[in-house]
Amino acid sequence: MKFIKYIAVVVVGVLATSCSDFLEPEPSSAITSENYYSTIDELETALVGAYDAIQGEGNYDKDANHGVQYEFYITEMRSGNTATKIADPDDFSDSGQFEAFNVLPTNGIVANYYSSFYQVIFRANVVLENLSNVDDDTSAIEAEAKFIRAYAYFNLVRLFGDIPLVDHVLSPSETDTQFIRVDKNLVYDLIVTDLQTAVAGLDNTYKTRASKAAAQGLLAKVYLSLEEPDYVNAQLMCEEIINSGNFSLVDYYDVFYDELNSEIIFAIGFEPVNDSQTFSAQWMNQVGVSSGLNYATYDLVDDLNEFGGERTQYSYRQDPLHLTSVRYQCAKYFPNGEDGGTTNPHQFDTNPELAGNDWIVLRYADILLLHVEAIMAGSDQTSATAALASFQQVRDRAGLTDPVTEITVDDLLLERRVELAFENHRLFDLIRLGKAQSVLSAYSDLNGFGFTSSDLVLPMPQNEVNLSDGLMTQNPGY
Amino acid sequence: MKNRYNIKTYVSQKLMAALLVVTCAMATACDPSIDALAFDLPDANSQDDKTPPTALFTVSEGDDFLSFTFANESVSATSYLWDYGDGNTATSLDGMNTYPDEGTYTVTLTATDDLGVSSTYSEEVVVVEPEIPPTSIPVILEAGFDNGNDSRDPWRNSDLGGVIQITSSNGYHEGSYGAKLPTSGDRIGYQLIGEFTPNKTYQLNFKYAFRDQIEDANGSLNVAMVQPMTDLSQFDDNAMGMITFTEDVAGAGALASGALVFNSGANTSLAIFFFNADDEAYIDSFEIIALE
User: Fold this and answer.
1) How far apart are CA B202 and CA B222, in angstroms?
2) For residue A51, which of A122, A429, B100, B226 sits 20 to 30 Å off, Cα-Cα?
């Protein structure tokens, strides 16, 4: 009997001490998210993953995130700049809803962009959450992750208005944070502090990854987009980039077809075949799965013809395959630089649906025009010397060398339109400069479309509203 | 026999009754016409409207100061009535109005749903022709150095150099006193001033003089506007404008007028910074004005 007591004590002791390790063994031949991020290099692979989420998948799978490749639908095609090949107010397909301002909450493209960019935010948050696992100096990694997070939030807050603010990796029980929309000013607070960290912690090594100049440029635009714009700091950010001497304007054609040229500040990199995009093909006539997207409206073509100068010939071309009416295509992103010729169907040396054209997010001409906007500081016009100098640089490159002595808000909007057409700026420019309602309702009336002021923000995706179990509210008008 | 008859009667009576009930039921329940529902109470099982309309809009200025656009942000409404406060009304979804003149107008939006429930929201619109905002003129402390040695305090910055001396020598100042930079050239004046209006052209006026203490040396005086700085090494990057006077051109003895024109750029505060080299220099009577 005595021995049984001792044996019992020993058995209980063994059970109590050894169970936990035994039942949750550390895998010795596999990597888990819990033991992975332990060196700078490993954190960097997580960063690269976040860029991968911005790129999105280069295919047409409806269930896959397509990231920035779908951005033109929800920005350029809602701005009066572009439309489907045959614009039609009664076209209620997902891609046909944008041009006529008839976007439905069930639109799959809107949902795709929303989930793509929260995926970007998630991946950036994973990096930030694991910084403390590494003993080395992680400040550059932190700066880069915060740049990515700010870039994603800046796009989302401008497109959807109030949105859920997720600043850490969520656990499944945190449904409130996942679905409850917070005031957009709070989202902007996070964007500004993230970008300030990015400006302080980054250098100008990369163009397809975050850099100091990219953070400064994005921050300038953020300052100008605030409810109470911070014009002086926006001007300072632009001048930091201008005075750095690292960037210059190049020949207009080379901006788009000589990748990573000295005008590019930040671009989303793509490579043909293995890391490719589909939008270049989609914008042509029946090259992708669509019959033709992001075609220039007559409204845009008229402005380009009258005010574009030498930029016009490199901005659009008449669709050579569509013979029943006159339609215009974007000429800035031909797949791998090949315009397909005039044969029907087009002929290409490389696969146009696996195109490698980078997507330009920030370039020097954008910064010069933001500099003008910052100096204008909310007034109707400016003739300040510094503003005229920046404005003139952009026009000189386009061959419009007549000296400008005064710039009005409308001059600035027009210059941005013809300089940055097809680059997903127009909608945000109209909103930021307070002209969206008047310009877009006039355009809509002329074309029989259904624009109302509530169309300036997208609907929250209906599947998110449904999943939220009443926590997520819909935007007015949807 | 009698019993059997009874059973038959009983069965047939039951059957008849059952048939009658079924027929009646069918006659009432299966009648597809609306008449059958005529006696249903109209409000039976109906629910309260849990989403009554809420009227809301935001105002933004249009192409000129008289025209405004109104973005309708009402929820749960189907018809709208805009009263722009100047006698104009509209029933469109979004509003747009051009006012006849300056003034304060109350814009009222009435949003109504199909149950006839309505909500109103009002906001005042101030129509005023925008004035060109006046250029702000910063205040310079002890601009004339007329409080003797106390005048030195706003001009001190020991990170950049020694403090100025104060002079009362005849001919080298205006008013009671002026500032003096001795031959050693190691003293400076530095004062951070604001508010500047960004991107405006200003002119800094002052009086200055040289005294020929060292015969071989050509003395110089530099007056600059700089962004705030903590070390002389930042001078080249921070200078917004600088003017240099030399003894051989300006001569010695007589008090002369100097001016520095500069643009405030993206700054709301800037510092006046002056220093000399090689010979004794005097400076006095700072004043800042906006040009244009």
Assistant:
1) 18
2) A429
Give yes or no for B94 touching A (CB within 8 A). Answer: yes
Q: Which chain A residues are within 8 Å of B268, Cβ to Cβ?
A: 232
Place of tokens 């930030």: A128
CATH code: domain of residue A176: 1.25.40.390
Chain A interface disruption, residue of B96, B109, B136, B199, most A CBs within 10 A? B199
By residue count, chain B amounts to 292
Q: Give me A51's structure tokens.
A: 């860029």
CB distance A453–B63 less than 8 Å?
no
Report the candidate in A478, A476, A464, A451 with the shortest Cα–Cα distance to residue A101.
Answer: A451
For chain B, positions 193-212, list CB contacts with chain A under 8 A: 198-200
Give the DSSP letter of residue A458: P
Architecture of domain B148-290: Sandwich (2.60)
- Name the percent of chain A lying above pLDDT 70: 95
Query: If you count DSSP H runs as helices and E runs as strands, how many of each does chain A have, helices first?
Result: 20, 8
Query: How many angstroms away from the CA of B74 is the closest CA of chain A?
Result: 7
Residue B268 CA to its chain's centroid (Å)? 15
Place of tokens 């071989």: B216
Does the residue A295 lie in any domain? no
Examine residue A428 and state whether it is found in any structural domain, yes or no: yes
Q: Which of A231, A438, A477 sits opposite B62 (nearest CB)?
A: A438
Using DSSP, how many helices (H) and how many strands (E) does chain B show? 3, 16
Q: Compute φ and ψ for A279, nearest 5 degrees.
A: -65, -35
Q: Report if residue A242 sits inside a domain.
A: yes
Among candidate residues A388, A402, A286, the one with its CA nearest the CA of residue A343: A286
User: How far does B76 lie from chain A, in Å, by closest CA?
Assistant: 9
Per-residue pLDDT of A400-457, as tens digits, reads 999 999 999 999 999 999 999 999 999 999 999 989 998 999 999 999 999 999 999 9
Q: Do A235 and B60 touch (CB under 8 A)?
A: no
How many Å lie between the alpha carbon of A438 and the closest alpha carbon of chain B? 7
Instruction: Say if the Cβ atoms of B93 and A452 lie within 8 Å.
Output: yes
Chains A, B: CB contacts under 8 A, how many? 65
Q: Per residue in B217-267, pLDDT tens? A: 999 999 999 999 999 999 999 999 999 999 999 988 889 999 999 999 999
How confident is chain B (292 residues) per 10-residue block, as mean pLDDT? 57 68 56 59 72 90 85 91 95 92 94 93 91 87 94 95 93 93 95 93 96 92 96 94 94 92 94 96 96 82
Superfamily of domain B57-127: Immunoglobulins (2.60.40.10)
